[in-house]
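Lab notebook, bench 4. The sequencing result for the construct came back, and we need a structural model before the next group meeting so we can plan mutations. Quick request posted to the team channel:

Model the 3D structure of this chain.
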Amino acid sequence: MIDFAELRRRMVEHQLRARGIRDPRVLAAMGEIPRELFVPEDQRHRAYDDEPVAIGYGQTISQPYMVALMTQSLELRGDEKVLEVGAGSGYHAAVLGALAREVIALEVIPELAARAQQNLEAAGRAHNVRVICADGSRGYPEEAPYDAISVAAAAPEPPWALLEQLADPGRMVIPVGGGWDQELRLIWKREGRLSQRVVTYCRFVPLRQTQTAPRG
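Done. Here's the predicted structure in token form:
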């Protein structure tokens, strides 16, 4: 039998805290949420590996450290409405849901969207997280604005639709770049102005049907 609780504890200590994740709420959430319920059964022995894990349909569940870093960058305090783009298996949505008031998670692949909702229910994390099958590059304007947006797929540039749906003030974290040469950027909106900085370098699957901000 695999001791998932012990693997989870080691993940928090060695993959997160030792690498500079300091937000106690992020550490607590990832120390509680059963990541093994968000990977296929034949991959559960790899649930706490320090790398992405395949979940089918050419998609992955992100490396635990990347989930923690993206979440910490949003500086959630508990009363936010959050949009997640690229729900995948639902794990990152579960983490966000433990730290925010409400999460709307978008997944373009119908089978993954259905599975993500099932995973959230199995983990007891569906009470404030809703998975919707939709093109994440367009966001979800019906529920905008969002205090925070987390994007788990790479775009050549931040999609203009997402920037428009970001509240003011608000924060968005997104991988930007083509191929495997990407930057994880934190973008914040304040008094109508957008600012950004590079958090780290990363590799994510591409965001489908991306709409970029107009230039000129």
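The chain has one domain: 4-202.
Will bring this to the meeting.
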